[in-house]
Design brief:
- The longest helix is centred in the C-terminal third of the chain and has 37 residues, at about 325-360.
- The strands form three sheets. Strands 1, 5, 6, 7, 8, 12, 13, 14 and 15 form a nine-stranded mixed beta sheet that branches.
- The protein contains eight helices and 15 strands.
- The protein is an alpha+beta fold and about 375 residues long.
- It starts with a helix and ends in an 11-residue tail after the last helix.
């Protein structure tokens, strides 16, 4: 028993090393070098150079976005007459944030008051032939009020249920051309700031200048004025692949993406934003109303169904800076992968040795088909 324990303890002090065999096979040797070069190309070309695997990354910056739309237009609305529209009228909400809405078209229904009136014939649940079709107290599905129980004449060709609601009911006639067609010449100012907390690095998309008139005359250009974040509305719609007149008629939604890809191993001035635009949806509208008191202390409202372009602004970014830790990890991974070349070549050699052994074996001789000696003449 003592000999067993003594042998086991001494075995812990043994040193083992691998035995290498040199194989002079040019095809296997070529395969070995090709696999090694492929791994080196992947590590150096893709991981380190293209993906910058030698850098530490910060992919969650703190961002802020402020938008201001500028422009003014005078339009004629049949129900309201001539009206001047400025920022307070055509931008919703008035204080620009990541999402805002630009009015380009509208349907106005002025001077509504609560009372009884016929439902609009375009509402299927409001059509009737008699009072039995209008159940009193029932809301009109997708309509404008509550049925009173009467079927009344809307015009010479339609009869609808009388409702209690805001009367007259909403106008359904949409202008054939956008009323605020001048909005394509409006300008949008986007002020964006990003802060990468990991590196304590901040950057804005505006040019630092003491000239107050610079931003009044500049327009964004990727080459000439990359730090002038003022865009024409028509240019943004065109960049999204749409025509302003087509989109302005019924409205739509456009996504504006700002990308920051900052290499902090280079000068900070090279860290600049990239803007991209894409169409999110067509047909966008909502309703709003303004209330007031008229003569005889009667309560009125003017209803507006607004069509326009909704802008959704999103900011994405990452910053990278050299760090020894990711560099060591990626280089170590590359060295480990180089061992895969040896494994591949060992498998190839094992296959070739097995194949050669089979051809030298007796079973191969027995499996060979007999040679055809032909017919012997007698």
């Amino acid at each position: 028993m003592e000999e067993v324990w003594s042998s086991a303890c001494l075995g812990l002090l043994d040193y083992k090393t691998e035995k290498f065999a040199l194989t002079r096979n040019r095809k296997v040797g070529l395969l070995h070098r090709v696999v090694q070069l492929g791994i080196l190309g992947y590590i150096l070309g893709w991981v380190l150079l293209t993906k910058k695997g030698y850098q530490e990354k910060d992919t969650d910056p703190h961002v802020s976005v402020i938008t201001k739309l500028k422009g003014i237009s005078v339009i004629h609305i049949r129900e309201l007459g001539d009206r001047l529209w400025d920022v307070a009228d055509y931008v919703k909400p008035p204080q620009g944030e990541n999402v805002f809405f630009l009015v380009t078209n509208l349907i106005a229904t002025p001077k509504q008051e609560q009372g009884s009136c016929p439902e609009h014939p375009s509402v299927p649940d409001g059509r009737c032939k008699g009072d039995l079709d209008c159940t009193a107290g029932q809301a009109v599905a997708h309509g404008n009020g509550i049925k009173t129980g009467k079927c009344v004449s809307y015009n010479t060709s339609h009869s609808t249920c009388e409702i209690y609601g805001w009367c007259p009911v909403e106008n359904k006639t949409l202008p054939r051309k956008p009323l605020l067609g001048e909005a394509e010449n409006f300008t949008l100012f986007i002020k964006n700031a990003v802060h990468f907390t990991k590196f304590n690095f901040s950057r804005t998309n505006t040019l630092k200048t003491t000239d107050d008139s610079y931003f009044k005359g500049c327009r964004y250009d990727a080459l000439d004025s990359p730090l002038c974040p003022i865009f024409y509305v028509r240019d943004m719609v065109r960049a999204a692949g749409e025509s302003f007149e087509d989109l302005a008629l019924l409205g739509g939604a456009i996504g504006l993406r700002i990308d920051w890809n900052c290499d902090l191993d280079r000068p900070p001035s090279e860290c600049q934003p990239r803007y991209s635009f894409h169409l999110l949806d067509k047909k966008y509208n909502f309703r709003t109303a303004s209330y007031y008191w008229g003569p005889l202390n009667r309560h009125y409202r003017s209803l507006l169904k607004l069509y326009g372009i909704r802008f959704d602004i999103s900011v994405h970014g990452q910053a990278g800076k050299f760090s020894i830790i990711p560099t060591a990890i990626n280089l170590g991974t590359g060295v480990a992968l180089l061992g895969a070349a040896t494994v591949v070549c060992d498998l190839v050699l094992l296959y070739l040795d097995t194949k050669a052994e089979f051809y030298r074996s007796e079973k191969y001789e027995e499996a060979k088909p007999p040679k055809d000696k032909g017919n012997v003449a007698t």
